[in-house]
Sequence to fold (146 residues):
Amino acid sequence: CEDVNTTSAANVGTGEDDLMSYTLPASSLFLNDHLVRITAWGTTAGNGNSKTIKLKFGSTTLVSSGALAISAKDWKIDAVVVRTAAATQEAIATYFNETPTTVGPDRTTPAETLSGTVAIKCTGEATDDNDIVQRGMIVEVLNASG
Fold:
């Protein structure tokens, strides 16, 4: 496991806010088929405000919940990003909440240069402080041997 974070982070007012983030070290995915598995989760406030939760790998949004008026619900994002070349990746991600609402699986093709660092982060966009609270994120780097 590369990183585990369970220190809660919440949105502040309107606009998109970074919640939890992790910087993948340069060259962590040094061969094709090496991958990063990301699990993120949290809760939403008990109100009817519109809430949008996203998971990003570098400049690519892997999945977005879209604007949801969910009240007092748990949410989770599962994602996998696989290196296909030094500056291309194949990714799949799914957003879930207990309503139940599911977005995805969404396939994307990030184009991050893996010889440099890559920011992995969740963002939240809502109306009031603490409409979205991220409770945890796990980033696992899985490099096959041989």
